[in-house]
């Protein structure tokens, strides 16, 4: 992403952006927003805790060569999977099709030397399931690397298409517990203009944490990943909700920049608003 000169005005000059992501992604995204001129705070409202490897889970990795398809649902899931594979496989077994739910997840696999597939557009489970190699899976085995909870759409859909799906749970998500001082600083002192919440679970946890704040977060611009989460946000009372165009840092920042550019141009809604 281009870093504007210090004397160049940008649409995000003095815009206050609150990033609600787990670390280290939160700090990295905050840095990208600062490069576009914004002021930032990070408030991770979800923590990811790796699940200790059990003998059963270890065997699933040892048996990696028995699967025809391996799917990672997020960049974090991909990193955790690669760490475990590296323990048992000096080289990746051949004959496996690898997938990332979105481009960012696929990039993690690609950086490890794989050639993963991912949707050309979109970064949702629905977009992944539209890929041609995942349509007819009779008698084929799929390893699904993910957290211990979450949407069951991928697993259930692939089973309906004939696949034998094995879930490899690599981490659990849990609500973070920021201190009262951190909440006061992030909400009441900082008073964010923009809030970034990139999952429905993140949004729910943020709402719960902000309920007792004197700052009305419902009037902030809220960026969420999908229309499904956008509906959830509007039902909760948020009035300015936009969907990300991609999950890479640059995509997220550019989506907010486009929104502010549209507002400065006098448009009622930013381009692509849900």
UniProtKB/TrEMBL annotation:
The gene name on file is hemD
Report which reactions are catalysed by this protein: hydroxymethylbilane = uroporphyrinogen III + H2O
> Which pathway does it serve?
Porphyrin-containing compound metabolism; protoporphyrin-IX biosynthesis; coproporphyrinogen-III from 5-aminolevulinate: step 3/4
Q: Which Pfam families match?
A: HEM4
**Annotated PANTHER family:** UROPORPHYRINOGEN-III SYNTHASE, CHLOROPLASTIC
Which CDD domains did the record assign? HemD (cd06578)
Judged by the first EC level, this protein's enzyme class is: lyase
- Every copy of the Tetrapyrrole biosynthesis uroporphyrinogen III synthase domain together lies at 28-252
The function of this protein is: Catalyzes cyclization of the linear tetrapyrrole, hydroxymethylbilane, to the macrocyclic uroporphyrinogen III.
Instruction: Spell out the family assignment given in the record's similarity comment.
Output: Belongs to the uroporphyrinogen-III synthase family.
* Protein name per its UniProtKB record: Uroporphyrinogen-III synthase
EC number(s) on record?
A: 4.2.1.75
Note whether Coiled coil occurs among the keywords: no
Keywords of this entry: Lyase, Porphyrin biosynthesis
The regions listed as transmembrane in this protein's record are none
């Amino acid at each position: 992403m281009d870093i504007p000169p210090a004397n160049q005005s940008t649409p995000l000059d003095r815009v206050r952006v609150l990033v609600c992501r787990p670390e280290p992604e939160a700090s990295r995204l905050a840095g990208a927003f600062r490069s576009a001129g914004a002021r930032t705070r990070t408030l991770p409202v979800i923590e990811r805790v790796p699940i200790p490897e059990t003998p059963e889970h270890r065997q699933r990795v040892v048996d990696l060569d028995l699967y025809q398809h391996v799917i990672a649902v997020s960049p974090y899931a991909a990193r955790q999977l690669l760490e475990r594979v590296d323990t048992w496989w000096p080289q990746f077994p051949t004959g496996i099709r690898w997938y990332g739910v979105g481009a960012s997840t696929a990039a993690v696999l690609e950086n490890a030397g794989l050639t993963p597939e991912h949707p050309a557009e979109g970064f949702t489970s629905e977009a992944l399931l539209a890929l041609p190699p995942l349509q007819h899976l009779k008698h084929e085995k799929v390893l699904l690397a993910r957290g211990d909870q979450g949407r069951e759409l991928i697993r259930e859909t692939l089973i309906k298409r004939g696949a034998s799906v094995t879930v490899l749970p690599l981490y659990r998500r849990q609500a973070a517990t920021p201190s009262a001082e951190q909440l006061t600083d992030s909400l009441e002192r900082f008073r964010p203009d923009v809030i970034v919440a990139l999952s429905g679970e993140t949004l729910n946890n943020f709402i719960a944490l902000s309920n007792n704040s004197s700052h009305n977060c419902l009037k902030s611009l809220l960026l969420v990943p999908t229309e499904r989460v956008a509906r959830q946000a509007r039902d909760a009372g948020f009035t300015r909700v936009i969907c990300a165009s991609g999950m890479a840092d640059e995509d997220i920042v550019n989506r907010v920049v486009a929104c502010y550019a549209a507002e400065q141009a006098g448009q009622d809604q930013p381009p692509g608003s849900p």
